[in-house]
Write the structure tokens for this entry.
Amino acid sequence: MEFPIGLYIALASALFGIGAIGFLLRRNALIQLMSIELMLNAVNVALVAFNRVHPNTQAGQVFAFFVIAIAAAEAAVGLAIVISLFRLKKTVDTDSADELRN
Amino acid sequence: MSELLYERALLWIILLPLLAAILNGLLGRFADKDIVSALGVGSVAGSFLLALICFAHLFTGMGATEAGAQIATSVAHGNAYEWFHISLPTLGGGTHEVSIQVRFLMDALSGLMTLVVTGVGLVIHIYSLGYMKDDPGYARFFAYLNLFLASMLILVLGSSLPIMFVGWEGVGLCSYLLIGFWYQTPAFAAAGKKAFIANRIGDFGVIIGMFILVSVAGSFEFAEINSAAPEMVQPFYMGTWQMGTLATAAALFLFLGCTGKSAQIPLYVWLPDAMAGPTPVSALIHAATMVTAGVYLTCRLSPVFLQSPVAMTVIAIVGSMTALVAASIAVAQHEMKKILAYSTVSQLGFMFAAVGVGAFSAGFYHVFTHAFFKACLFLSAGSVMHAVGSHSDADIFKLGGLRKIMPRTHAAFLLASLSIAGFPLFAGFFSKDEILLGAAELAYAPQPFSANWVGWFVLIVLGIAATLTAFYMFRMYFLAFWGDYRSAGEPAAGDHHAYDPKPHESPDTMTWPLIILAGGAALAGLLSLPHEWHLTNWWAGWMSHSIASVHVVAAHVAEGAEAVEGAEHAETMVPYLTAMAFGLTAVFVGIGGAYKLYFNRSDDRFRDAMPRGLYQLMADKWRVDALYERAILGPIAGLATFVGWIDKTFVDSLLTWIPSQAAMFSGFLATRIQNGRVHAYGAVMVAGLAVTAWFFVTPHPDVEVEAEGATARFEAASGMGYAYRWDFESDGTWDAPAQEHGEGFGAERSPSHEYAYAAVTERVLLIAQANGEDERLVLSEEPQTLPTSILPAGWMEDPTADATPPSVRLEHGDVIMRRNSAALGTPQVPITQEELHLGVGDRLIIGRPGTDRTSIMVRGLVEATVEIENAFGNRAHERVEVLLNVPPDRAEPDAQARLTTQATSQGEVLR
């Protein structure tokens, strides 16, 4: 059976919103990284859904693959930063990363 | 040797000390002391040797041509180059290309000066080896000293004013550096600054004088300036005020420079303070060479000075007064170097007095002899200071009996003292006698010669000054070298003037230079033999190659035809005998007085013999320093305090503090964002995304309209998934169907529509305004009066009568305008009717011809509406006004509204 495009967009928006709220509200760097991943994958869902509506170039799916690749790189860099932060501060609380303040 | 080799040699005279200065200055402090000494002294010795070779060449070839032999570097041989060239306006109104070449020239005058500079320089360099032996700034000292020599040689050998000026400034700089050589002592550093500033004041005069000269001569070369000297009798205008002749202005400005460099009244005050420098510096720079640069310059440009009797008189008076004032100060001083410093100022005054009475050759002869005896005296003073262990100066009342302890120094000092006092057959006797002779010739010059008084004035003043010279020299000699050594006792604790109780003779490196210089001081006078009237002596004959040979008497009456005749009459014995009488009286009275008062005595009997106040004035240097302090420095300091106060209160508070607070506050605000919290950054990012999202979700029509006649062209902005529909008349029916515009990205505008209107909804009156924005009046059946505020100033037909502005109304679709008191018309023709029928597109001019006028226009107004729907299904309306300047019914009689669409990119009609 075929779902209308609106449902996919609603799903993507819901996922993105959860990710954004998580990113803004949580202080744990690992949780924030996971929130970012959530937002990226919400975008992927939307891209694939749009691709189904306009399938002639498959641009949506190709774009989704790029997003996945970027997300992998981002996760690697992000985790490295988290480890560095932990070594420096003995915590992964992002509020502790305030060396540039003042 | 060929000429080319002599040119090379001439260059290397300058380059050797320059290279040594650079090497010692940059690398000297890392090098061994012996290497520094070898470089410093060796380069000067080489320079002296080359100077001797060049001079010998000059000497053998001197009689060859009328102008005398000379060695000049030339561009053609690659030994000179063009520094720069400038385009100067000439007095005639045209322009003149002046090339300034770095060229050097050695002739009779500069050749002798070069010998003095390098010769005395060499002796003093050798002396410095001993004197500066233990100084931590050894390499620095030799670098400065060599740089000074190079600058002095550039000054002397430069063949044009700008090159000379490079040397002139260079010696000033080195003088500053060497006076302040022990800069850790604030007083010494201040003395350096004082010298530099006094010199700068003079240098300003040299620059002005240089420009005046080049404006006449069209060249900076000395030779060309001197040959152009006769043209300089033209009047000189400063603005509209005539300031004597060009020669007077140039000579006086140059002389201002000389008063700075050669320490004449009023700028002499720096020279006594300059004794803060090491003693060899005092001997070389502030006695033998640099301070005589002013005399050298006047001799160089003697034809120019001779053109101006006014300037010559000024120089003669200033010179002789300087000689007298400085000598009177010297008799009341206690320190050896102080006395010698004032003695130098005094002797420089003698030289300028000589120049002023026209005896250039005599003046320069005194430069030559003075270099020997004054350098010798300074070095002897240095030797004494070295012996008694004093660093700053030696008080003659604490010395005594040095004759037995320091026999060599004593002998040298005695010879040099006899020479400067003018004892017969010593060098100073001959040169001083020449000067007095120059003054006496002027004094005895026959009528109608009007400047006799100048000669008498100079003769008498110099006679007194010479007496004082002999007196203060032998006062110093008797007090320092005779009697018993007065500091033999144990020095009191904490007495910084304590002298070594057991003085000793200085080392050979210091005494040999003394002996050489003393020899010069004794024998240099032989150059002016035969010292007799009617026979040209060797010196004068030699100098005549370089220095203007115009007789002084002829110079002072250059305008009169009797000049030559008068000059011949002056050749009698009277002036010679007068000069000799003055000179001999001065020596014997001076020395005799000193012997009577001070021989084998230790107290200051001269002071006791003088009126108390007068002596105190002389000891206080006539309080000239205090006068300058009060009259010049005080007001300047006051002004500086005032300006500083303005800077602090006005600039720092109003102009600096307020903007700085504003910047700090905005910075404070900006740092609130940069608070270091990752979440705050995230929130800003999300907010930014939200704004961007809103922009994409909401359509933005942004319509542009272009009206031409009854047709208007419409375009709206394009965007992602935009679809448009148009209602060009805003009457509720869509004239153009909804249409999707392409992909959105790339195309800037929507497809454009051209719509030809068949009817207008409103009529408006536009009144042109000065700012380019037309004032708009929407017309109705009700009559409206045009407000006077938007009408041009001269709108009334009759400015004197009561004015009613025109009114306008609509009647059956026609525009009716009542003229009332306004002046109306087409651009060419005035309109006299009271009421006018106007249609859309008509244009009128309001205002009287010859006054401010402006145009009024009737336009048709319609409104168009566009509606946009984007990919998200959001819609936006925009309503735009269209002003048509041709009524649709007039454009085409049976008009029907018509739409033309031009798609700029592929469009897709949805409905």
In short: Chain A is about 75% helix and 0% strand.
